[in-house]
Amino acid sequence: MQTKLTLRLEEQLIEQAKSYAAQAGKSVSQVVADYFKLLTSQAVKENSSITPVTQSLRGILRESPLDEKDYKKYLEGKQSRI
Question: Which of 24, 35, 42, 56 has the fewest Cβ atoms surrounding its Cβ within 10 A?
Fold first, then answer.
């Protein structure tokens, strides 16, 4: 059952939330619901040292064309320049 919730936020934050939701193809309500689910999920409780922003970035490169070996070479090259 869905219930209405009223939030009081600064106007600028509301505009940012609307913009974010539009870019994500979601409603502001869905973005808020997703965030609350993330906050209350067991994984977040177990990994409380991981911030929600960091948690949202987990796995983002899984579909990336980057190869693990290429990245390792990049890091080794970077380390040798230090």
Answer: 42
Domain that holds residue 63: 11-80
Q: Which residues contact 9 (CB under 8 A, 6 or more apart)?
A: 17
Element counts in the chain: helices (H) and strands (E): 5, 0
Listed as ranges, residues in the chain with pLDDT below 50 are none
- Give a yes or no: residue 1 inside a domain: no
What's the number of domains the chain is made of? 1
Tokens standing for residue 76: 């080794």
Task: Check residue 42 and give its pLDDT.
Answer: 64
